[in-house]
Amino acid sequence: MIKQKIVIVGGGAGGLELATKLGNKLGKKGHATVKLVDASDTHLWKPLLHEVATGSMDSGIDELSYRAHAYNHGFSFHLGRMAGLDRDKKEIILSPIMEGDKEVLPERRLNYDLLVMAIGSVTNDFGTQGAAENCYFLDSRVQAERFHKKLLNTYLKANAEAKGRDDFTLNIGIVGAGATGVELAAELHNTAEQLAAYGLDNLKQEQLKVTVIEAGERILPALPPRISSAAHRELEGLGVTVSTNTMITQITDQGFETKDGSLIKSDLRVWAAGVKAPEFLKDIAGLETNRVNQLHVKTTLQTTRDDDIYAIGDCSFLLQDNGKPVPPRAQAAHQQASHVYKNIMNRYKDKPQSDYTYHDHGSLVSLSRYSTVGSLMGNLTKGSMMVEGRIARIVYISLYRLHQIALHGYFKTLLIGLSGRINRVIRPRLKLH
């Protein structure tokens, strides 16, 4: 067996699970060197970033150190942001690491025999005027923590100004009614309840006005209409204003200007609509990309113009037999990571590459502690089974546990779960700093 250099760029759900499997199977046995590259020191499951943003999850407790995890699982971690690719030399280029205006590490190059692109996606503001300057985005732990700090400061100020004033309102606007926008809206109401319990009770919960703005006809457009309708009812029950068929043309520090000329006032503004792959991927090294910078892949998950480069997760584009692309979901990244692992092992055994088929196991949306709605089974049955309430919440949590099991195994995941229960007893219900 030839010792190869395998480089995985991106430590999200798919990239980290793949690095862990390959490290355990090949790295520990000296059959390959497995390297994981990421721009952050730590990993958080991206579907939970809205909980970090509202304080329901403490990233300092739940984040995973790449370097420590690499030590335990037979691969090495390299901190850096990918800036380029040299396919002729089989090298990826990492940008210099800076501390202010001082260079910590210069530009670096890493050689590979096999490269896996698992870079994920970022929010797509579609060039909307004022979005970058006046909105918060939730693409990373750093951005989620920045929003959390701003939310606490804004709430602190509003609580002081609301004393004795029934006419006072704190307005928060969210553009995009996909899973992130809908879940964030519900979590904000939970945050208001918790902050009132911890003494910030001048601002009544009904004085928090959360508006979810969607350009389409309904919220959660990627999910079946009945699930969308159920979530819509739950949000309105919480007092969330849902504005569908509303196109935003400009964003200022006052709020959102709509296509019909009206203004949706907002003290805090979040953009959670649309996804795209990072800009540097556009036509990188002659690889085939689409209009949102995703890398075209074959059914083997190899890029269309280079069989030594795979792409998985949100940064990849693959049309299914039904003519629809594989959706940018965590379950797709998980499935693709497992499939690329099998195909890399097939290469070592001189076996042909196998084709990947996306299996939709359903989708769940958590409305904080109030409710969870969604569908299960997807195309594993002739239809989907709608679930909500406690059963749906248990299944939703189990998805995160499955990700942890892929990284840590069953025993450590059990210990992590027990630790979480203990923390709920001894720590505040909300991160307050």
Automatic annotation (TrEMBL):
Q: Could you say which cofactors this protein requires?
A: FAD
Provide a Gene Ontology MF annotation, just one: NAD(P)H dehydrogenase (quinone) activity
One example of a Gene Ontology biological process annotation: aerobic electron transport chain
Under Pfam families, the record lists: Pyr_redox_2 (PF07992)
Q: Sorted alphabetically, which keywords does the UniProt record give?
A: FAD, Flavoprotein, Oxidoreductase
Question: Cross-referenced InterPro entries, in alphabetical order?
Answer: FAD/NAD-bd_sf, FAD/NAD-binding_dom, NADH-Q_oxidoreductase
Which SUPFAM superfamilies does the protein's record reference?
FAD/NAD(P)-binding domain
Keyword RNA-binding among UniProt keywords: no
The superkingdom of the source organism is Bacteria
Where does the record place the FAD/NAD(P)-binding domain? 5-337
Give the similarity note.
Belongs to the NADH dehydrogenase family.
- Protein's name in the database: NADH dehydrogenase
Q: What organism is this sequence from?
A: Litoribrevibacter albus
Lineage, broadest ranks: Bacteria, Pseudomonadati, Pseudomonadota, Gammaproteobacteria, Oceanospirillales
